[in-house]
Amino acid sequence: MKLTFPLFALCLIVSTTSFIASATSHLTIEELRVKKAQLAMPMLTDYFDWSVFKGDWSKVTDFSVGQRAMNQFGDELWQYSKQQAQNGKLVDDRPLYWTRLSIQAYVKSTKNHFTQTELKSLLETFEKSSRGYSDMGYVKVTDKRIFLTGFDPFLLDRNLKQSNPSGLAALLLDGKIIKYSGIIDGVKKTITAEINTAMVPVRYEDFDQGEIESLLAPFYALNSVDLITTISMGRSDFDLEHYPGLRRSSTAPDNVNVYTGANKTNPLIPSLLKAPLLGDDFVLFSLPYQAMMQAKGKYKINDNRGVTILTDGKAKDITADTLAELSDKISVQGGGGGYLSNEISYRSIVLRNKLGSTIPTGHIHTPRISGFDEKINQAIIAQIEAMLVQALTEI
Questions:
Q1: Taking a C-beta distance cutoff of 8 angstroms, is the pair 174, 157 a contact?
Q2: pTM of the entire structure?
Q3: Interval 232-256: pLDDT, tens
Q4: Hey, how many other C-beta atoms are within 10 angstroms of the C-beta on 59?
């Protein structure tokens, strides 16, 4: 795919100022993994043709035009990745992740005309648009609207080739129209829905800075969609997480190797814009789980009501039938664990409740895969789609 960037051409005639920024910016742990990843997965090297960008980037001089260009460039990477997956050419979530990082590393390592603050803003613009954040409009005439999020691959120092079915779900389902045709309340009906998606980073700092709240607040404030589901990779089957928990307790690092210092006997409250995240220790999801559990497929679908609480300084696993049973408990793990899978669900539900929204919201944990397996990934995503179709009977 050959790309052209008219906005970059415009940049070249706006100004001819000399360099005002330092030549390079520090690469993150994620970006430093790119070269090793390219050796391990050769398909990454020619996945997306961004040679025009390489030729023009050092000539860009105007910040506002550059910002529009970076937004366009990120969106082109997102659209291309969706097309590759949806057309069956490369049904894989990993090339989008690694190409994004490769482009970011190049931008940081190449002389430019911007201050460090401006460069950071340009990179953020590119990253968000390459995650689908600039492509969240609903354009089809349907009865319902569904929004879902997927995650990047993670724990890459354990397995550099790791895929994430939730990320692939975001690529394959974005823009898709699903349909339920059947009997509802004794009446034959056909219900349609358009699905919109975005891809979320696996980084504690982004969560602490309010990335999830910023992404989802417009939907909740306007009640503009009919269902929101966050998705991540989890255990052996599908789990619909009934009771997300407030605190972090995972000892695993995020994708930039940040450790929170939390564990099961020292669960920690996350932040929201430098203040402690406020909310009850456990909240209740509102997905139409009984309908979703009727979805056919390879895997069992569980209504997971298990959580972990802190009692007498020790972690204890319990199962709750109602949220009231958890009202005086200290959370160690919600149904989704003590990592960002649980946290994205918790944050979305707390935000929904604070804004008085009625949008059904909750989390789907997919079966876990090791590395990459296209057939297993596609079976997982087909069953996610089947769950969403079944949800149409109740939303």
A1: no
A2: 0.93
A3: 999 999 999 999 999 999 999 999 9
A4: 13
